[in-house]
Specification:
Layout lengths: L4 H13 L1 H19 L7 H12 L5 H8 L2
Helix pairs in contact: 3-4
Length: 71
């Protein structure tokens, strides 16, 4: 059964106020921006964080890198 335009608008407005939906949209935007700027090199966000950490902290052990870069 097709939705009425009123129900569709209500659902859309409800989503636009949902914190979970808004966070999901923000993550999508960040992913798109990352892929536009950095992703062409084939790096993932995680790989970039690890490389930046190693570059800023020469001589770290693998354990120290994991401790500094874990979510």
């Amino acid at each position: 059964m097709p939705r009425s335009s009123e129900n569709h608008a209500t659902n859309a407005n409800g989503l636009n106020r949902s914190p979970v939906h808004l966070l999901h949209r923000a993550i999508q935007s960040v992913d798109e921006l990352f892929n536009t700027i950095i992703g062409e090199n084939g790096l993932t966000p995680r790989q970039l964080i690890v490389l930046a950490t190693v570059g800023d902290n020469e001589g770290l052990s693998q354990t120290a890198i994991v401790l500094r870069t874990r979510p």
